[in-house]
From TrEMBL:
Protein name: histidine kinase
InterPro entries: 2C_sensor_his_kinase, HATPase_C_sf, HATPase_dom, His_kinase_dom, Sig_transdc_His_kin-like_C
The keyword Aminoacyl-tRNA synthetase is assigned to this record: no
Top-level class of the enzyme under EC nomenclature: transferase
Amino acid sequence: MKFEQLAAAVIHDVKNQLQSLMDEEQLAIEQLPAQYRSIIEPILQRTNRLKNDALQLVILFRLGQNRPFPMDDAWLRDSANDAIEASLIQFPSVRLINEIDEDCQGFYNENLIHLALMTLITNSVQAGATTVTLKGEEIDQASGGVRIQVIDNGPGFSKSMLDSQGETADEVSSHTDGTGLGLYFVKLIVDHHKAPALGTSVVLSNNAKKGACVTLNLP
């Protein structure tokens, strides 16, 4: 077994152990008197962040090795709800809104899109947003194509970020701030959903009044 494969196996095991630790922490919070829960909650949040970082490493390795992720029919509202529920562990005071219609269906890898949405929510909150809204719609019923938007009330994207949105994922990774690295990861995920003769895209924009918007177009 190659070193890279061993490293990926270890990281995957770490991710599973962190998930088990989170489960134990959540159980402890439920059983503790209310006045003591605030002591454990920051530990749960940090454990959740470490688990997500480990999961990102596993996915980055698989994407780097060009290993396929299975695609299947999925309901976009449910995928968004899962991402919101997981993000609220990390950011309980942030308002997360799901405006995706219940009938919106797509064809994608649910685990990858779940992680992409969590990454974008994290980017928004770290930039200063207090409200993040998820929107989505079908753009091609025949192929299962969907458009997903993550809209926040933060400060918006800088001019340099907007100017770089035509770059490849590798070029985006040259940005030194956390938003650039998060977008690099999201671009890798979206690019993995490319289909023959159909393109994908990640579009950055600023809202008319305040905040940023990231649009994911999946074929």
